Amino acid sequence: MKHHAKGGLVYSTETGRMCPACGQPVAQCTCRRDSSLPAADGVVRVSRETRGRGGKAVTVITGLALDSLALGQLGKQLRTACGTGGTVKGGTIELQGDQRDAVIGMLRKQGWNVKAAGG
């Protein structure tokens, strides 16, 4: 086990990473859940980007007020439904290819207020 310079446990082989503030495993941390939600206006925006990607289209979903765990699960559902790859970065979900229509339909079925953004 490694100990932090201030004396707190950083990593445990039983539970993985530990929260430095409350000392609980990161998955069970209660001190960061409230502050980790991004500010959102209630509208999920789905756009297509090609800038900086070698001309290849990427579908970007922003405006989801979810914590990182729930965002990762939603990203996996969308990747599976679209049959494509993708990632979750910085509070956004990125899917390979132009998947806007499929993503908008799925998110509306789940009850999200969805808007197509960009060109």
Q: What is the CATH C level class of the largest domain, in words? A: Alpha Beta
Q: Residue ranges: pLDDT <50 for 5 or more in a row?
A: none
Q: What would you call the shape?
A: elongated
Approximate helicity band: 10-25%
CATH superfamily of the largest domain: SUI1-like domain
Strands ordered across the widest β-sheet:
6-7-5-4-8
Tell how many strands the DSSP assignment holds.
8
How would you classify the helix and strand content by structural class? alpha+beta
CATH architecture of the largest domain: 2-Layer Sandwich
| Proportion of beta-strand residues | 25-35%
CATH topology-level fold name of the largest domain: Translation Initiation Factor Eif1
How does the SSE layout of this entry go?
Elements: E1 2-3, E2 9-12, E3 16-17, E4 44-49, E5 58-62, H1 68-82, E6 86-89, E7 92-96, H2 100-109, E8 114-116
Parallel strand pairs: 4-8
Antiparallel strand pairs: 1-2, 2-3, 4-5, 5-7, 6-7
Question: How is this structure best described in words?
Answer:
This protein has 119 residues and is of the alpha+beta class. It has 2 domains: 1-35, no CATH class; 44-116, Translation Initiation Factor Eif1, CATH 3.30.780.10. 21% of the residues lie in helices and 26% in strands. It is built from 2 helices and 8 strands, in the order E-E-E-E-E-H-E-E-H-E. The protein has a 5-stranded mixed sheet with strand order 6-7-5-4-8, covered by helices on one side. The chain is elongated. The protein starts with a strand and ends with a strand. The model has no long low-confidence stretch (mean pLDDT 79).
